[in-house]
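Work Package 4 report. The design task specified in the project plan requires that, given a folded chain encoded as structure tokens, an amino acid be chosen for each position. We show below one input record used in the internal validation round.
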């Protein structure tokens, strides 16, 4: 037996190694998956509380590998961010989302916007707007139907540069949503300067609505958003009482398992058909 000190050092080293090996495995799986088309797009409805009708949907990437099964975005997205593969993955998602929405519009099933997540790496590409234009044109989808979700971290890196990029997207008619609002470092001073359309209240705040202080917090966020003329979407809504509370707080749109989990393209098509029958 080795000495205790040596042992824990070895263990630490071993854990780090295993972590590094796992990352490399996922990096390789993603490279292969990009070639073999293993990235799919699922859609989660955003429901209007008042009307009970669909306001829009969020496109969420799914990495479905033949050998390792489904790998969670929570696992591969951070690695893809580091390796830069998120740029290519993000374009696959944007392309498929535009393709699917175009088909739903043409079938008369939908006329709203699809929200696509944009990573910080994508956001800082010098030719971002051109890349988006190309994908929209290729799919014959007017920019009106697109919304991009960006996080506080993405825009707070260089707020003035971010404002310029956001303006050029906004000028095209693309809507912009601040994702996971309240979880990054505060952008309150900048919030009014960003050309945003929507503010998405993070699930953490919705989970906290059991307490009065938690409810007051959501109330305050919704008030700030409305004072800035922003639309509010509550994320991660799982329970009926949360919907009731959110309606009282004048939050218009909710997204979460209470209404639906993210659905595959055929599942979402069926969902849209059912919505029409209502
Ligand atoms: P996000 O953008 O905040 O997306 C919402 C996440 O919450 C999704 O997880 C969704 O499935 C999950 N969710 C929705 N409703 C509920 C609910 O009621 N309860 C619970 N517990 N969870 C709910 P998902 O799909 O695993 O994605 C995780 C994160 O990965 C996303 O968080 C986003 O940051 C990132 N991501 C997903 N797709 C993309 C993409 O195409 N591009 C980029 N850059 N990031 C993506
Ligand atoms: Ca999002
Ligand atoms: Ca979010
Ligand atoms: Ca989130």
């Amino acid at each position: 037996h080795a000495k205790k000190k040596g042992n824990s050092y070895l263990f630490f080293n071993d854990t780090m190694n295993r972590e590094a090996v796992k990352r490399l495995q996922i990096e390789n799986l993603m490279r292969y998956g990009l070639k073999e088309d293993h990235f799919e797009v699922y859609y989660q409805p955003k429901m209007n509380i008042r009307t009970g009708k669909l306001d829009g949907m969020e496109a969420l990437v799914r990495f479905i590998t033949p050998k390792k099964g489904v790998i969670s975005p929570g696992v591969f997205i951070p690695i893809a961010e580091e390796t830069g593969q998120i740029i290519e993955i993000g374009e696959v998602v944007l392309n498929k989302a535009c393709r699917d929405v175009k088909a739903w519009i043409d079938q008369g099933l939908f006329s709203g916007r699809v929200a696509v997540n944009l990573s910080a790496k994508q956001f800082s590409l010098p030719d971002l707007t051109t890349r988006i234009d190309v994908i929209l044109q290729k799919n014959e989808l007017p920019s009106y139907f697109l919304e991009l979700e960006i996080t506080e971290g993405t825009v707070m890196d260089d707020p003035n540069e971010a404002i310029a990029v956001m303006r050029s997207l906004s000028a095209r008619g693309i809507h912009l949503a601040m994702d996971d609002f309240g979880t990054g470092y505060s952008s309150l001073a900048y919030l009014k300067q960003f050309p945003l359309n929507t503010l998405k209240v993070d699930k953490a705040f919705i989970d906290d609505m059991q307490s009065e202080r938690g409810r007051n917090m959501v109330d305050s966020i919704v008030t700030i958003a409305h004072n800035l003329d922003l639309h509010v979407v509550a994320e991660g809504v799982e329970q009926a009482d949360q919907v009731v509370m959110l309606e009282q707080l004048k939050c218009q749109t909710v997204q979460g398992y209470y209404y639906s989990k993210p659905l595959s393209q055929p599942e979402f098509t069926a969902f849209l058909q059912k919505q029409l029958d209502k």
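The pocket of C2E (ligand 1) is lined by residues 44, 60-61, 72-74, 77, 86, 90, 93, 117, 119, 179-180, 236-238, 256-257, 262 (CB under 6 Å). Validation will be extended to a larger panel in the next phase.
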